[in-house]
Every structure is written in structure tokens, then in C-alpha cells.
Amino acid sequence: MKSKEDNEQVDFFSIGTNDLTQYTMAADRMNARVKNIFNSEDPAVLRMIEITARNAHAAGIWVGVCGESGANTELTPFFMECGIDELSVAASSVLKVRRAICDSN
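-> C-alpha cells emitted (105 positions)
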């Protein structure tokens, strides 16, 4: 019988929201014919992030978000509620996101 340690495969998850959205919505954001349906705030995309975070945390695994959604301050409260451990954003967005985190508390 395998131990819990034998079943562990990862130490962390880093959710790339651009790719996740693209695959979930079947829409390449760079393709002018379908980029109008590329929506990182779509409930399906957000639900996948939530499910990933919940299950990862249940297994003691850290979860981060990278991609443009991390800098979307309208999503900051959602990420905090899900327990996202880190938001990876461009340097130009750090203060804006930090302010949104403080305002959410």
C-alpha cells in the first residue's frame, strides 16, 4: 500500500489565467474572430480556479494565480475568498492590487 507521500506529485500550483481562460472558453485572445468570447471573469473560469484552490488547500498545496486576471482588482476579493496564496502581477500593478487587498480586509 502506498503512503500519502507516494501519492504527492506537486508542491504548488500556479494557475495561468490567460491559458486557463483560453482553453475553457475555446477562444484564442489573439484571434480577432473569437477574442470577443475570451472572458477571464466567466463563471466557468472562476469556478475552475475555486475548485483548484479548494482541493489543493485540502491537500496542503499552495496555489498562486498568474496572468492578467491577477491584476484585475475586481477579482481580488474573489481570489482572497478562494484562499489564493499569491497573485503574480506586473510591477506596475503591485500597488493597485495591494490597495485592493487592504480594502477587502
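Residues 64 and 85 are 5 Å apart (CA to CA).
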